[in-house]
Amino acid sequence: MAVRTNRRAKRHAKHRRAVALAATAALLPGLAVSAQAHAAERDVYVASCRTSVEGSRVTAYCHNPYPATDRVQLHVECARWWDIDSDSAPVDIGPTAYAELTQRCWKEVGGAWISHQPVPDPRPGT
After folding, report:
1. Got the DSSP string for the chain?
2. How buried is 35 (Cβ within 10 angstroms: 0-12 exposed, 13-18 middle, 19+ buried)?
């Protein structure tokens, strides 16, 4: 009886593996198409930025490793209802360039984020 149970378990394990492989094979083409669509949407290169909050001051550190210029802007939302939210002036970060943007609230910071806008190439015909 133990031998029969062992054979049955092996047979079921093979069946489960075959089903898993078939399901994976059926999903792979969809994943490839999805990855290509995502890559096509991601043709716009943006600078990599990180933010740091120290008390009521927010600093954004941005680096653009791409060959296209990226226009970045820091937005700060203050926690207090009477404290005015602020946006930094837009800064163009050229290829391999680095920028630091700072803003502040009077009291606590509620949130901060960076917006990106691609800058058109000024060269004619490109």
Report:
1. -HHHHHHHHHHHHHHHHHHHHHHHHHHHHHHHHHHHHHHHHTTS---EEEEEEETTEEEEEEE--SSS-EEEEEEEEESSTTSPPEEPPPEEE-TT-EEEEEEE-SS-EEEEEEEEEEPPP-STT-
2. exposed
User: Do the beta carbons of residue 49 and residue 61 sit within 8 Å?
Assistant: yes
Closest CA to 69 of 88, 52, 51, 44: 44
**Position 23: which residue type?**
A
Q: For the whole prediction, is pTM greater than 0.70?
A: no
pLDDT digits (tens, 9 = 90+) for 52-71: 999 999 999 999 999 999 99
